[in-house]
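Subject: sequence -> structure tokens, single chain

Hey, anyone have a minute? Need the predicted structure for the following. Not urgent.
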Amino acid sequence: MHMAEFEGKTIVVTGGGGGIGGATCRRFAAAGGKVAVYDRDLAAAERTVAEIGAAGGIARAYACDITDRAAVEAAVAATEAELGPIDVLVNNAGWDVFKPFLQTNAGDWDRLIAINLVGALNMHHVVLPGMVARKAGRVVNIASDAARVGSSGEAVYAACKAALVAFTKTLAREHARDQITFNVVCPGPTETALFEDYKKGAGNPEKLAEAFRRSIPLGRIGQPEDLPGAILFFASDAASYVTGQVISVSGGLSMVG
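Reply:
Had a minute. Here:
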């Protein structure tokens, strides 16, 4: 992908203040894109924007709780007014609580479903009409290998991410005539704040990290910077004939046909 691949394009990344989201925002900006950094934590989004600005890129921060439909509408309206029509949507924001299903409660479920599934539905519902009107667009949804192979202690999260995969494939069918593509990137274990929480929940974080390292064929836990390559590919002209697909970026931990 040459440096100006996304010149003039407006890209929205949810959870853009986090590890994978921040790395993705920086990579889009480095490739010439105008990046709208959405995060519930405005200060985190502003840190990503400051890093992009320091590197000579274009980005703006937007406080956006994706579970709040009105907040999503306001952020999208502000983005289109300030950066232009949205060309690429990356639904990356996510949240998890790590415990066996029988130890979770209905309150946990509601929050997990709101953030990991309804939040993505809100983003699609608000952004897609503009893409349909322009007959152009790229959507990249960040799920998880938990969606493909399951993950102990993450039952409801895995359920939401699996739902997101099926939702993506369905929209890929519904909007093929509009020349909008929808694809999914599934990170494996990746060093993010969420993974830190996961390790803490295990009681023996270092032992768990070592077990992961041993089980991953490439011999290391993923870094946030390992993800943007696949995400930018799906958003690029190189992937114009790719839709409804799922790719794992997991160091080979899961190899799914």
